Give the backbone structure.
Amino acid sequence: MLTRILIANRGEIAVRIIRACREMGITSIAVYSEADRDCLHTHLANESLCIGPGPAAESYLNIPSIIAAAEVTDAQAIHPGYGFLSESAKFAGICRECNIRFIGPSATAITLSGDKSACRQAVRAAGTPILPGSDGTVEDPKRAFEIAKEVGYPVLVKAAAGGGGKGMRLVKNETDLRKALDVATNEAQAAFGNGGVYLEKYIEGARHVEFQVLADEYGDMVVLGERECTIQRRHQKLIEETPCSVLTPELREEMARAALHAARAVEYTNAGTVEFLLGPDGAFYFIELNARIQVEHPVTEEVTGIDLVREQIRIARGEPLGYDGVAPRGAAIEARIYAENPDRNFAPSPGRIGRCHLPGGPGVRVDTHIYAGYEVPRYYDALLAKVVARGRDRDEAIARLSGALSEFETEGVDTTARFCARLIRSERFRRGDLGPDLVGEHLAESQ
Amino acid sequence: MDFDELEKLIRIFDAANLTELEVEAEGRRVRLARGLSAPIVHPVAHEAPSTPAEKAGRAPASIPSNGLADGGLVTIDSPMVGTFYNAPAPGEPPFVLPGDTVETEQVVCIVEAMKILNEVTAKFPAIIEKVLVENGDPVEYGQPLYAVRPLA
């Protein structure tokens, strides 16, 4: 039985997991850093304990502290949320050795998903198309030039251990390649402790479309539709929606099948996301498999009615999926509210929130950990809230999200709420004409 | 928790003339309150974090950490989350007892985390005034373990 779960995370996702535990009659145990004494997860959990000082390396990333916290509180399982230790094969392995259930895939599946170039190989072997590029990491710069020439510029230099846009460089010609290799290698080494990089062809005007997968421990898998995440800033997602307006039912089915193959190739279990690039010509390519619950999971929940965090816990408890087909209904859009100033190139804006109003109303959902008087710490990711709107169709979802975002208020802290509102009201967004350039274009327009 | 148990709780609540009672068991939380002078406006206002020490039924240490409290006492705080041991091994005498004088770098206790025994040392010469936790207690990061009087 699984009756006590420790949540090795903070902020909105910790709150989200506490709520799932509460609904399932499971005792939730929060861990927090000294900087998060007043964070909502610290207060909403059934039990909570301080595991270290503010810097994440000494608290939320400190494996001995988190394991010790699980041991002294008799937690039977740990939910890692996203970020922090969620994709650490080492952490998943240690949990297993300590007889604590890690709510996520096996350490082996995490290792394979996390090494992006190895994962590309495994997935390609399973018959899923991948972007033309290097087979594995590039050791020799000479080889990099050959590959780039072969696939044609522009190319992306990406970190094998990468994520969140770190260690990634867009290269338009041969002259820039040498410098990009050096910079990306150094950045990857600093950010991930692994300087391995690989090359991928860059496709102009491509969309970023990902598929949500659930897999139980008995080999049963299900795909819960797609999420369109093309709108990003600094390679980080800003607005996500489902369904993706350019997928035909045939293409959707083909991509869902490819997602299943990819997940099977790494013997995936629990909740995961298979990311694809979708070219303007309808060709799609596997990019990576994210071995965790995603930030944008609520849009899938809103159209399927399936509680993904609950499913993660059910799978970890050894329960079978037992789905009899999934039929998503309507449309859902999520806007990420970061404590950042869009007029200053999304510079972080930490500080104390004075007056605070969170939107509501039909079809509106807000996942957050903030409240009036909350101090946004400078140590962590600037995500404050996710505002999600559901509608019978895309237009209704846009209208609801637009209204909800105009209500969103955090006195004293700048956020991306107004920017997201303007963006989704734009003619291009309404038309569904999404591209990686939309954020930049919109920034230019609004200035 | 069923209705019978709830009824029992209400009787205890009445008999003890309490204004507020909160009980947690098996992931459920029951809170009884009356005659509150101010409305509760925010969830954080009434949900104090329950530390392992509080769970064990003791009041949290009232002596503030990292600072001089009344009477010139300061605390030695746990450097990590783990289990507190006052002696090097079961059955051995404690590292320190109230009244003992400790030197800088002298070991005062052990905090065990992931089967590793971490020695906690005094950072300055002091007299141990009070042991704030019991042998074998779970402790969290920064939790006061000893109240001590620094020797200037």
In short: Chain B has two domains: 1-40, 47-150.
